[in-house]
Amino acid sequence: MSFINSLNKIAIILTAKDKKKLIGLVFLSFIITLIETIGIFSIVPFIAIASNPALISTGFYMKLYNILGFTSIPSFLILFGLILTGFFILRGIYSILHSYLLNSYVFGIFRSISRRLFQNYINMPYSDFANRNSADLIKSITSEAMYFSFILQYLLFFLSDIMILVCFYIVLLLVNIKATLILSVVLGVKVFALTKITSKIMKDEGVKRESFDKRLYKILTETFGNFKFIKMLPDKKNILKKMSDITEQITRTQTTYYTFMTIPKNILETIGFASLLLVIVFFIYKYSDSAFILPFISVYVMALYRMFPALSRILGSHNYLVFGSRGLDIVFKELTGKIEVENNEKIEFTKKIEIRNVNFSFEGREILKNINMIIEKGSKIAIIGESGSGKTTLVDIIIGIYKPEEGNIFIDDIAITNENIKDWRQKIGYIPQSIYLFDGTVAENVCFGLDYDEQKIIKALKKANIYDFLRQKEGLNTLVGENGIKLSGGQKQRIGIARALYRDPEILVLDEATSALDGEIENRIIEEVFNLSENITLVIIAHRKNTIKRCKIIYEFNNGILNLSTHQDV
């Protein structure tokens, strides 16, 4: 992965506010680099005069000694030592503050990216959502967003350590250019070789990691989504094997990654120790006088002591940037893809819904063929037909989930467009065949996605004829369990009806909403729906004749073609 290409992607993904904070952190990193450089090399003169107090009587030390009015060398050294101690304490406080700001920024980016991905996903066209695996979307919001935020963290580490290397390298050049250049060549060759060896391996492991994570999320969602079926299996070894195999592959990938992350540190420590000894040998050979070369050796010892860990972290950061690049690619793709903009322009429904010449195909199969239909306001209509004939697809187009390839939906002769689609959807209460209830209270499930209004919730539950049952439990605070596992099918359906009614809909759509219930419960619920929808336009998709017996108008699907089947008298 090209480093410049990665920086371009990061620049596109980050908001203007994020970029300003990032620049601020880079500046703070530069400040801490200067502080560290000053701190490390301020120890050198202290060591020099502590080992040879006679130096105080020469040059800069003598001027400082006289200006401060010292009369004894020990008191001068004590003050010098105390100043250095205070400096390092302040450096430590600044480092902690810098670390806090860095971590705050990184996890703030995770929050921001997760939110933006989630926002994109809940606003994506339903046809796109139908072609995606929900486990894949969850993985992007959690795992890939986290990898992206850590990429920024390691990028900041990378830049900070580069600055440390540059500052210390400049000082070493000033001390002895020949020894520094020799050291640079030796280290440069080693670093280049390490980078070449590890980069491809880390990139390959990063691609594997993303693939394995995707499979893991898929296995988990499939397993917990079919828990009742799994409980019925006599032997769960196949499911356990799938889980075991994928976690083993993830373990291998992570083992390879973390092993290769330690290689640069181990190799550089070996090289560093050897290089340090060679530098000392070089100075002894050149200058002979150990007292004379002590300051030079001290400079190199201090510099290399700080440079080798920085160089090791640079290689480690580079390895992570390569390993996590797949996360960057995914976040970039998901956040820069085409997003359909939908607005909330008002649209009034006072007369009729008219479907004009609507055609629709899905995955190359023609489902709706030149559909024409009129639904008068306040009418009760039914749509029947064989499974897969197009009933649900037509309703999905009417309620604004799908958009027709040809033709349009008109509300009082005004076409539904992206400008008014949100306002149109707000007028619709939708009750699907499978009601999904999340693990929370009844009240939370009824007002899902809307503002909480206790009186309005009670009113909706009363209309759905389930409030009296709930009063025998914990009322609005009755817990339903994940997917309503603590409720019966009929009770789940009634809460689904209450959820639809909570929106104060002008149109109520039942998409085979009672087909999973037994006949008696279905008849009772359908009767209740008709009674409470006296002033509401009602559209019912059903198989059973009992479900639609009170509908005045019945449409029948046959091979994607819609016909007015009967016009009943109520």
Describe the structure.
- By secondary structure, this protein is α/β, with parallel strands linked by helices.
- 65% of the residues lie in helices and 11% in strands.
- It is built from 19 helices and ten strands.
- The chain has helices spanning 3-13, 16-51, 59-67, 73-122, 126-130, 134-175, 177-225, 227-232, 237-287, 290-323, 325-336, 391-398, 421-426, 442-446, 454-463, 467-471, 489-501, 519-532, 545-548; strands at 352-362, 365-376, 380-384, 406-411, 414-415, 428-431, 507-511, 537-541, 553-558, 561-567.
- The strands form two sheets. A six-stranded mixed sheet has the order 6-7-8-3-9-10, with helices on both faces. Strands 2-1-4-5 form a four-stranded antiparallel sheet, covered by helices on one side.
- Helix 18 links the parallel strand 7 (507-511) and strand 8.
- The model has no long low-confidence stretch (mean pLDDT 80).
